[in-house]
Amino acid sequence: MRVVIIEDEKPNATRLKHIIAEISPEIAVVAVLDTIAESVDWFKQHMHPDVVLMDIRLADGLSFDIFSRTTLQCPVIFTTAYDEYAIRAFKVNSIDYLLKPIEKDDLQQALERVSTPQTYKMPAEPVQQLLDFFKQQDVSYRTRFLLPYRDGYKTVLVEDIDFVYSAFKTAHLALKDRTEETVTQTMDELEEQFNPSLFFRANRQHLISIHSIGSIHNYFNGKLKIILKRDPEREVLISKEKAPAFKQWLDK
């Protein structure tokens, strides 16, 4: 079986590759792609695999857009970090999915369920329904944190967060008053919980608020360098692949 992985977070892609290797040495990962544009180009130039493992949210948009730009002649298993309401949508439309973090048994069962006839074509109607679902849903984003404080608790509002950074596998909330708070959530979890119109995942270490940006500069190899208003010495770089999505996020 030939597999293509579409995933913009390298740790997640690496984890998938390791799990696939454990499932069977006969399963070959023929490509790992991390953007819509790269995926479309790849499918236009290569023989299609037996199955695609496709993340929903990529650096340059929702992966559903791939289907409007090319025809996939193979089954697709979506991977997602979205919660239960999204999972119900997948079930209704009969499209396989895996909920992150992906486990070996779940992936093995999904691969066993996938049929691989040469004439397979992803139905357009269910894909469009899913695309509309994710674009139109009324999402409730996190507005506050309840954190331990002395012998009790205190509340931190999301609107008071300037940016979030990761250090030693721990997420830290940098507040607008220049204080910091540590939280138990991972960066991936916080990215899903924060309103994407107000916060952008610049890289693995930083999730920045639209209000935290002081200036934006071109950097080496197509990267962008962000200077933060309240922490100008901090280096926040956006990759060449993620730069278009960042510019689109700003231009709303």
TrEMBL record:
Sites bearing 4-aspartylphosphate, chain numbering: D55
Domain spans labelled Response regulatory: 2-115
MF GO annotations: DNA binding
PROSITE patterns for this protein: HTH_LYTTR (PS50930), RESPONSE_REGULATORY (PS50110)
InterPro entries, sorted: CheY-like_superfamily (IPR011006), LytR-like (IPR046947), LytTR_DNA-bd_dom (IPR007492), Sig_transdc_resp-reg_receiver (IPR001789)
Keywords, sorted A to Z: DNA-binding, Phosphoprotein
Matching Pfam families: LytTR, Response_reg
Boundaries of every HTH LytTR-type domain copy: 145-252
UniProt protein name: LytTR family DNA-binding domain-containing protein
Organism field: Chitinophaga defluvii
Lineage: Bacteria, Pseudomonadati, Bacteroidota, Chitinophagia, Chitinophagales
